[in-house]
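debug: dumping io for the single-chain case to check the tokenizer round-trip. Nothing else runs in this session.
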Amino acid sequence: MAQASAQPITFDQFLEWYPQTGMCYELHNGTIITMNPPPGKHELITGFMCRSVLIEASRLKLPYLIPKTAFIKPPLANSAYLPDVLLLNLGNLVNEPLWEKASTVSQGESVPLVIEVVSNNWRVDYLKKCADYEEMRIPEYWVIDYAALGGVKFIGNPKQPTVSIYQLIGDEYGVEQFRGNDKIVSPIFPGLNLTAEQIFKADVID
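debug: decoded output
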């Protein structure tokens, strides 16, 4: 990630500035951040998770979709995030004041699940985004650390590829971690039949 602007700006200024260049940017506490193109493995895992989640949501007949590009804006932070996987509850979008204007959600009721696939900016995923998603009361947040980039306080020592699933319990996140052949346990999708290793390999299972 590279810093694109050193001057703090507001979310509205960020929207006005946002260029139509094909590049992706986030806003972190008023600072524009360039999102560097991810490696191929990152994109395979992201696509695999989109497929897996949507198949399960369809099986359960839930009104959920994954947009191509949409922001999460924490109400109490001057930030805007582009998650790798953002699952939207279509039924709550009528209550989102920024949805029609800017494809942006700011209410936890609109977001059943967020998934981030870890890159070199792992501190943002484990610290900043986790805290903001918790504050928004997003029910479930996954951090897929396929390359074991996160610090040992997040994924243990020795470091190994880990899926961390944060679940909102009361006002705070609790976390469960899955590695190797551990079967993923998703509170939102209890019928999701995946192991951590299948996610890391992006194995397509019919």
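debug: round-trip ok. The longest helix spans residues 40-59.
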